[in-house]
Every structure is written in C-alpha cells, then in structure tokens.
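Can anyone check this?
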Amino acid sequence: MTELIIPKDYDPRLSIRETEAAIRYIRETFQDEFGKELNLQRMSAPMFVEKSTGLNDNLNGVEKPVSFTMKSLPDETIEIVHSLAKWKRLALKRYGFGMHEGLYTNMNAIRKDEELDNFHSIYVDQWDWEKVIAKEERTEETLKATVRKIFKVIKHMEHEVWYKFPQAVYHLPDEIHFVTTQELEDRWPDLTPMEREERIAKELGCVFVMKIGDKLKRSGKPHDGRAPDYDDWALNGDIIFWYEPLQRKLEISSMGIRVSPESMKYQLEQAGAVDREQLPFHKMLLNGELPYTIGGGIGQSRLCMLLLGKAHVGEVQASIWPEEMREKCAAAGIQLL
C-alpha cells in the first residue's frame, strides 16, 4: 500500500448522507457558475475512443489505458479515456463553436496504474473544459486571467458551501499566486520537483505552477511529465492548494493554452514521439484545421474534498481501495464510500 496520511483526531463533521448531499450541491452549483464565468456550454462526451484516432491522452507516457474490443468492430482497440484533452478541441470545431465560446463536460475515467493514497484513486471524475481563443491570445496574460477566473469561482464556492454546511467548510486562501517551474528549481535546486511544490504551496497557500513539460536548465529534466500534443509547455500549469488537514499540497486543476502546429512539432520531437504526426488528430492540427484553444480539467472529487475538509478522496467518491487502507481509515473515523 502506498503512503496513507491519518490526521490526528479526525472529525468528518458530516455523516455519509450529509456528505452525499454536500457533494451533489457542490457539483451542481460549481459547474453552473464555472460555465457562466468562462462562457462554456455543457456537452456530452465519450467514455472511450478508438485507439487509432490518437485522441486519448497518454498522460506521462507510461500509464496504460483500460482497453477492450467490441463485437461490431473486432479489429479496433477501444480505450477508456485518460482525459478528453484532444477530443474537446476537435469537438469545438465539429460543433461550430465561435470565438471565446467553449464547452465543459463531465469526464469519467479509469487510471488503473495510479498509486493510491489520500488524493489518488483509479477512478477519475473531473470537469473537462475547452474554449476557443484567437492566435494572438496565446499569451501568459490570457493564461493568468483564466486561472484567476477559475480561482474566483472556487473561492465563491467556499462561501456557498459555508452557507449550506457551516460546520464542514474548509476555508481557502484569498488569492492565487504564480510561479514558474524554473523559478522553483532556481530557488530549491536540491529538492525534487514535488518537494518544491510542497514548499511553495505551504508558503503561499494557493499557487499556479507554470511551464510544465520542457527540460529545466539546471537538472536538464522536466519538472513533471506532460503529454506533448495538447498543452503548450510554455503556457500551461497546475492550480495547487496547501491543504492543512493533511499538511500536503492538493492539485485541483491541470490546464493550459493548447499547442499550436509549431509548438506541437517541437514538443513531439522533444518527447521522441514524431510518429504521432501521422495520426488523424495530429494531421488536422498540423494542417491548421483546428481552432486555437485554452482548456483543462478540474477534479470534481478533489474539489469536494477541499471544500469539505475531508481526509481522503474516498470520502467523496466510490472507488476500490486495498483492504488494509480501508481498515486503517475506518479505525481513524475516515468514512470511505
């Protein structure tokens, strides 16, 4: 079993049924406010895609998707999505979204190779979103402005939850800060990337860690893995909160301005994945047939966990956990669904 943090004298504050009511309230309220703030329309999305399309997200390149074959397409491998990063951009074109319009969807996935702990489950549930922008808006200013809007909605949700469940709400910082992965390496060269994120999150409360995927100057290694064919590594990042109940950082969102034909070509070369240029999605992008976009994902269970001060993601989603983990959580008053 991977690391499990048991907070001292843990009090879940809400019963399981009260927690379920809070989960429903948070999910329904957040998606409505988030959609209005970013001008996004809710759309239906697939749970699985054909492998041959190249639409699935390969995450860090080592996680294997759950796959199967279907009776009507015996020669095609079907993969349960890891995320909808590429599908969303294609959908914006197919469905005729205009400038500064976008979509969001409920994305459910299985990541069977995930290391389980308080924050990580093999079941992933998030709001995946994507929005059309102009080529000249592919800037750091656009990225930061969008991050601030997302933080604003999350912060407003704190007040909404406090009104409905005052005994349970976890209080968030009043602002979000910005830092690049290179600045973190320059400041703490002897720490690992994840240790640097822990330090800066504890120091600032909430931070957007920018520029993930390309090699850093000192180590010559990326801060963290990021697929080369959706985020632009120079214009992306993660929203991270310092989470007092567990004394750990908690990542809520991974997002960014998406690759241009030029940046994807560079990133595929850096990742040793030039062969992907022959896949249908990648051909369309390189031929300039897809809109310029910004997008990302926001963890639904993680947001519920954050706002309700829960000790384990299993308190806000139903998944599968090792028996040893279940026993330790039960002994500590952590109510896994």
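Reply from J.R.: I decoded it. The mean pLDDT is 92.
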